Amino acid sequence: MRPIALLPLLGLLALAWAKGPLDKGVVIADAVNHRLVELAGKGRLVRVINLLRPFRYTDDVFVAPGGSVAYITDPEVDAVGAVGYPAGRLLWLYGRPGHPGAGPGQLDNPDDLVPLPSGLLALADIRNCRILLFSREGKLQKVLGRTGVYRNADGFFNKPNGAFPLGKDRLLVTEIAGHDLAVVDLQGHRLATISLPVHYPSDANLTPWGTVLVVDWWSPGAVVEVDLKGHLLWRYAPEGKEEHLNHPSVALGLRNGLVVLTDDWRHRVLVVDRKENRVVFQYGRTDTPGSDPGFLRYPDGLDLIR
After folding, report:
1. pLDDT score of 44 more than 80
2. Domain of 69?
């Protein structure tokens, strides 16, 4: 009777896979092409949204709940903003394009403008060593850390390059200089520091199954999965000529248990089966940058369609 009992489960798994390896789909920040690329759950190209000035390097994209707004960061012009989605019209901008700094309204190498469950947006301001919290309308609400002070300690950050939600009232902050992951509250108090087995930690994301994915922005690069105590659970760092990663920047867990990631310098987005350590889907031509359908040019970020 056991095979019969498994039939409903197998049917559910088949139905889940029928939705596609990308679940409901993804939006890719195709950096050097200055555009957003949306793929459906099965990987079909849905649309391409070309972004206008002042953006010139679309480093990251995060889609607001409801899907009508996308948040963009551009470290080349040192500005961030919100655009209507999918129209691409600029709604607001923060930063003085072309004028990096630590003064009022200035940023210096911003990274990841991320919606939080609290309704705020979190931004890592790398060279200023701080996390900024904004309203959804782009108004600065709070500064975490000490501007210009590099330190891996309570109340400080050491070149943070991403602040992602951990529940409603905590953040996961990757620190470049410390090669670590700081767990902080929304007041900036450091609750824990987790050492990471990577050269350059990038973007710590909580998975649907409760672990954390962090990318090693390096060559050869890697994706690591850890628990909140820092135990290494999985590492994806293939060594083959075709398979190795070159400066991947972000990895997200999908509800189907797969992991989607950007492999920036090889111009592709990959979906990886963690159990078999193999690629089950790819968008972009390996080592071949381009702007035609099916091609990417330094994809530097992505977010899920929810």
Report:
1. yes
2. 25-304
